[in-house]
Design brief:
The chain is α/β, with parallel strands linked by helices. Helix content is 37%, strand content 19%. A six-stranded parallel beta sheet has the order 4-3-2-1-5-6, with helices on both faces.
């Protein structure tokens, strides 16, 4: 069901990101048939997007908000905004630092769309953004 799935890619620091701009893009994806939203839950942008999807569930009850964790001891700040938590099969074999890039690849491999806030070329968000471009998933920059 990759064609009905979107993810989010962005920096932890995302001051000035417009909540309503993300909301508009998420609604646009819902109108295209996207029902599942995968979230890495690592930084400010991830949490902003998770809250937007959670809020939109009132108007679009068919959508699902998933948190994809890289390791079992991952700290989850606010479980109740997610419909489910995914711990991908086989991830128990990865050291926790290696598990994060693997989780990011999982997000990309299982999504047709990515709403992104990437403003510089270093760090995990930038690497994941480049991965998404190579995989040719539809990128939506905010």
């Amino acid at each position: 069901m990759r064609e009905k799935t979107a993810t989010f890619i962005g920096h932890n620091e995302c001051y000035g990101v417009d909540h309503s701009a993300i909301r508009i893009e998420v609604i646009s994806l819902i109108e295209k048939g996207v029902t599942d939203f995968l979230n890495g839950g690592m930084g400010g942008f991830d949490w902003l997007c998770a809250r937007v999807v959670h809020e939109l569930k009132n108007d679009y009850p068919q959508i699902r908000n998933y948190l994809v964790i890289p390791y079992l001891t991952f700290s989850i700040r606010n479980k109740d905004i997610f419909d489910d938590i995914i711990y991908p099969d086989g991830f128990e074999k990865y050291h926790f630092k290696a598990a994060i890039p693997k989780r990011n690849r999982y997000l990309i491999d299982n999504s047709a769309y990515a709403i992104c806030y990437v403003k510089h070329g270093w760090g995990g968000a930038a690497k994941t953004y480049e991965m998404a471009k190579k995989k040719k998933i539809e990128i939506i920059d905010v």
